[in-house]
């Protein structure tokens, strides 16, 4: 069933993506907003991402912002909970324990702080990370470190688009995707 649904999802993802570039821009920008307008795609996206791995997670983690949206769709399709990995953490109180990590350089050469409340992941959880796009692998590496800091097991990262610059990351993290950027 995942194969049939995945083929339809992949086609709708390709159809909904637009590359935007002005004449003076050196690089084109991927415009993903067409994906979110397609109700059928939204319904099928979570199961398609969940189907990239055989191991069933007990929780899905999605980094802000689009990873949180599609991570919640994936968690709902699996019938498991969801944890949002936030940027720029602000503790509510001194006793509000967070687990935080700083990324290596991302696609914009930024180092970002990601984290979540420590009690949201338990030792023994099996965690699937979900995001829209993998480019440098910095976010996936950081989320994996956060998961391991909690004593949980990192299954891998399920992404919509694999745009990895370092192909070794597909195996090392691991990262699996519905689309390869070279086919877009």
TrEMBL record:
One of its GO terms (molecular function) is glycosyltransferase activity. Pfam families: Pribosyltran (PF00156). Residues 53-163 form the Phosphoribosyltransferase domain. Keywords: Glycosyltransferase, Purine salvage, Transferase. InterPro entries: PRTase-like (IPR029057), PRTase_dom (IPR000836), Pur/Pyrimidine_PRTase (IPR050118). It comes from the Bacteria. This is Phosphoribosyltransferase family protein. It comes from Kribbella lupini.
């Amino acid at each position: 069933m995942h194969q049939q649904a995945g083929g339809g999802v992949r086609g709708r993802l390709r159809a909904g993506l637009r590359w935007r570039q002005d004449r003076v821009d050196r690089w084109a920008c991927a415009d993903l907003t067409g994906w979110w307008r397609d109700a059928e795609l939204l319904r099928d996206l979570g199961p398609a991402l969940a189907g990239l791995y055989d191991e069933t997670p007990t929780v899905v983690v999605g980094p802000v912002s689009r990873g949180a949206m599609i991570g919640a769709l994936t968690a709902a399709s699996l019938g498991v909970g969801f944890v949002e990995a936030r940027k720029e953490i602000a503790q509510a109180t001194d006793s509000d324990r967070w687990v935080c990590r700083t990324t290596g350089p991302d696609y914009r050469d930024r180092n970002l702080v990601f984290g979540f409340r420590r009690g949201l992941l338990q030792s023994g959880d099996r965690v699937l990370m979900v995001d829209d796009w993998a480019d440098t692998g910095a976010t996936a590496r950081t989320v994996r470190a956060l998961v391991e800091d909690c004593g949980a097991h990192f299954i891998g990262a399920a992404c919509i688009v694999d745009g990895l610059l370092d192909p070794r990351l597909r195996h090392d993290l691991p990262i699996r995707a519905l689309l390869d950027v070279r086919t877009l």
